[in-house]
Amino acid sequence: MPRGRYSLHDPHDHTPLADEHFQCAPGPSGWRYVSRLTAPDGDHAGSVDLTLDELGRPLRLELHAASWQVRGAALDGVTWVRTDPTGAHATEGNVRAHAFTGSSPAFLIATARLLRLTPSAAATRVRLVAFTDPVLAPRTVDQSWALVDRETHPTDNGPLTVDAYQVTALDTGEQHTVHLAGDVVLSAPCVELEDLDSPPSDLG
Question: What gap in Å lies between CA 127 and CA 101, rounded to an integer?
Answer without folding.
Answer: 10
